[in-house]
Amino acid sequence: MFDILLLSTLTTESDTNPVLIKLAEIKQGNEQARESFIQQYDPFILNATSKVTGRFVDKHNDDEYSIALIAFNRAIDTFDHDKGQSFFVYARVLVRNDLIDYFRAEGRVQEQTLSESESNDTVFLEDKTPAVEMDEKFILKNEIALFRSALQDFGIPFSALVKESPKHEDTRRQLVSLTFQLYNNQDIREEIRRTGKLPLKQLESMVRVSRKTLERHRRYLLAGFILLDSDLDTMKDYFYEAL
């Protein structure tokens, strides 16, 4: 995921970008592809929803998830790659705006229903157009700089992530999926935040991955966790593309 971020830097042609290929299939009427796409990127929908609400969202019991799912579906139908932005940036805006409209319709007080960062985000509260005015490449470069600094706090050289990125797609997808499992497990999440290390013994009992593989990709997994635990939303959006 991190090597992709560095090398592609946001612009990937539609004939090689798997997300754009899947979106094209869906727009041609392939409903099975739509269901598969939504299932694959369900972690993105949950993250985007939690970002607005400021809490973890239960997809089975929270209305906010249903609203976000509808917004994500609309993003699939209306996304235009020719406008030069990432699908996930576009989808995140639609999710935010729909949730904000929902909170207002419910008569909730904005400061109590939105996370602090979202409440202060005047761009998304006042501008209802899906277009993102800021230069995405500029944002990504700044986020990479912040990410480098965060990695240093955990003793991880940024260059090591490029070298240690899995060469096989199946392995990469497996590790990305595992990263989400780590982050969504409250006990492990708090353990990593407290110690700055992966609890390998605990992980080994949770997943079908050998201890050797976990140790080999320890820094890669920890870096993924650091990213998910951050506010670096543009980098996160490209992380989801690695699913």
Q: What proportion of the residues form beta strands (DSSP E)?
A: under 5%
| Beta strands, count | 0
Radius of gyration: 18 Å
- Number of spatially distinct domains: 2
Distance between the termini: 9 Å
Give a quick account of the main beta sheet: strands, pairing sense, barrel closure.
none
Determine the structural class based on helices, strands and strand pairing: mainly alpha
Estimate percent helicity.
Answer: 55-70%
Which sequence of SSEs, written as H and E, runs from N to C?
HHHHHHHHHHHHHHHHH
Low-confidence stretches: 4-15, 109-134
* SS summary, helix count: 17
Shape: globular
Topology:
Layout: H1 2-8, H2 18-27, H3 31-40, H4 42-53, H5 63-78, H6 87-105, H7 110-113, H8 116-119, H9 122-126, H10 136-153, H11 158-164, H12 169-184, H13 186-195, H14 200-206, H15 211-216, H16 218-228, H17 233-240
